[in-house]
Amino acid sequence: MKTRAGTKAQLIEELAVLRRRVEELQATDKRHYLERDYLENVLENSPDAIGIVDRKGRFIKWNRMAEEIFGFTFEELKGKSSFDLYANTGELRAMLVKLRASGSIKNYEINMKKKDGSILPIEVSISLLLDNDDRLVGSVCVARNLADLKRALNALEKSNAQLHEEISERRRALEALEESQNQYRAIFENTGNATVIIEEDTLISLANTEFVKLSGYSKEEIEGRRSWTEFFAENDLKWMREYHRLRRIDPHAAPRNYEACFKNRQGEPRVVYVTIATIPSTMKSVASFLDITERKRTEEALRRSNKELEQHSFELYQLNEMLDVLQVCNTSQEIYATIGHFATKLFPIHSGFLAILGETQGVFNVVATWGSTQNEKKDFSHQDCWALRRGKAHVVEMRGGGLLCGHLSCYSSPVGYLCIPMIARGEVVGLFHLMQSAGDPAEQSADSEIRLMSSRERLATAVTDHIGLALANLNLRETLRLQSIRDPLTGLFNRRFMEESLLREISWARRHDMPLAIIMLDVDHFKQFNDTYGHEAGDLLLTQVGSFLKSHIREEDIACRYGGEEFVLILPGASLEAAEQRAEHLREKIKELHLQYQGKPLAGIMISVGLAGLTEHHASSGALLKDADTALYRAKSAGRDRVVVAKTA
């Protein structure tokens, strides 16, 4: 009986041990199920394509993002080799060599094929999967489409074998769960993004290596100790907390993707692209953070470059417009008005003026102003400007930071300014002055003045060059015009100009019913004068006669050299009687000229004058000139030194 009682007690004890073992295995299974669920949700919400293959490269797992990127379903790839997805066998071999050498690769760029045959640039991270005996059982690959780095984490595919009801089946299931856990941990660690699991109370329960790098804290300092709210700026937290609250009510009630300012351990701000999703059937969330700080800086630099390019294009357009207008200006006043107009457009936040060297030696006259100097004009001397004295641009970047020009005393005190001399044919002929308008003192920092002046100097130099060229062209055109209408010896108008002017004056006189007279005069005995004193003396005589006529006519009269020693005066509005009186006056006054040539006095000068007045019988200017010429011939025939009036019909 004792033997049977002992055996029964032993069986009961063994049964109790067996039950405890079963309970332990069940508890272990439960933990692994929970961990598997967490990792499956990480896989389910991954923004990257993830594939798991066995040791022969055949697919055993393939998430939805992989299907979206490559176009293949898992059923289409099941049992197939992953090598078929690579576009170039040479690139594939090189990658495999690196993988075998190191056991893993991270962020490796390679071309892969979609279902439709198109090629995608893909960044892959591959880790080999080993069993407990370090034997290769497969690999896990995380692939990211480089064309779209902002994709959110897609939900990972659910995949696990059902656990057998028996303890032996549970043991095999436990091994499968451990292998699956290792796979998901590898995925979690190799997503390439900083990724965390967030508990309902906002604490971070799990963080991968990338998040450790981003935050600057160790895993021990993060997991279970820090809230995700500690890593974001206060400005962002208000709406991020609201999103967090809404997501607990409805996973779709708040955005899954947004940008925020992330603060690391050192307090350094980083711009991150947040992807967050609620883990189904839990109050937990999985969040990934992609650091886009450099991309944002690049975008800002690009924005500034585009803005500068737009400004440069605008300035170039205005410069071309100004040059077009300057080329058709007929007077210096038109040029000055054009400069004032376009300077306001090219330098909208600046004041300034244009000064031109005047007739008084060394004095510059302000001819155009804009900005706050618009109503302030004052002339200044060459010595009042450092740019004029040095013959090159003079820049003052901030008040008191350089040599100030004396001509600034008549204008508002500048914060910074520049003076650019306008040089033509090696000589300074003008000054272009530009200064920052007085504004908000907060805006007038030294740095802003330096940037402002340096950016405007090139443009102001180009404007100055255009102005100098326009003035030079205008002077050249005026010189050529004068040469075409002036007699080079006497300085009087030439015969061509006289004929054009006579036609115009006849037309005007007839339209307004006004009188018109012409005087034709000839220097008496000019040939004898030339023979006696020489041609140089004759030229001197003609020059003096020209000067005499210019100084003894009205402003509206036109004095011309007709040819040789003959001259013509057109007298608009003068009656025949008034013209005769003036002709007699000229004849008497010219005798008072006393000329010397080579120290010797020349004989007295006398003139013969023919006079004609416009009548209705003059059909043309030629007829009027002929009457005056006939009267002149009569005066010379009658003994010279006299005035003869043409006979009227």
Please characterize this protein's 3D structure.
There is one protein chain. This protein is of the alpha+beta class. The protein has 17 helices and 25 strands. The strands form 6 sheets. It has a 6-stranded antiparallel β-sheet with strand order 15-14-13-18-17-16. A hairpin with a 5-residue loop joins strand 10 and strand 11. Helix 9 (293-327) packs parallel to helix 12, helix 10 (332-346) packs antiparallel against helix 12 (446-485) and helix 14 (526-533) packs across helix 15. The longest helix has 43 residues, at 2-44.
Keywords:
44% helix, alpha+beta, 6-stranded antiparallel beta sheet, 17 helices, 5-stranded antiparallel beta sheet
Q: Could you write a compact summary of the structure shown?
A:
By secondary structure, the protein is α+β, with helices and mostly antiparallel strands. The radius of gyration is 50 Å and the shape is rod-shaped.
SSE blueprint and pairings:
Layout: H1 2-44, E1 45-46, E2 49-54, E3 59-62, H2 64-70, H3 74-77, H4 89-102, E4 104-113, E5 119-130, E6 136-145, E7 154-155, H5 167-189, E8 194-198, E9 204-207, H6 209-215, H7 219-222, H8 234-249, E10 257-263, E11 269-278, E12 285-291, H9 293-327, H10 332-346, E13 350-357, E14 363-370, E15 380-381, H11 386-390, E16 394-396, E17 417-424, E18 427-436, H12 446-485, H13 495-511, E19 516-523, H14 526-533, H15 535-551, E20 558-563, E21 566-572, H16 576-589, E22 596-597, E23 600-601, E24 607-613, H17 621-637, E25 643-645
Parallel strand pairs: 24-25
Antiparallel strand pairs: 1-7, 2-3, 2-6, 4-5, 5-6, 8-9, 8-12, 10-11, 11-12, 13-14, 13-18, 14-15, 16-17, 17-18, 19-21, 19-24, 20-21, 22-23
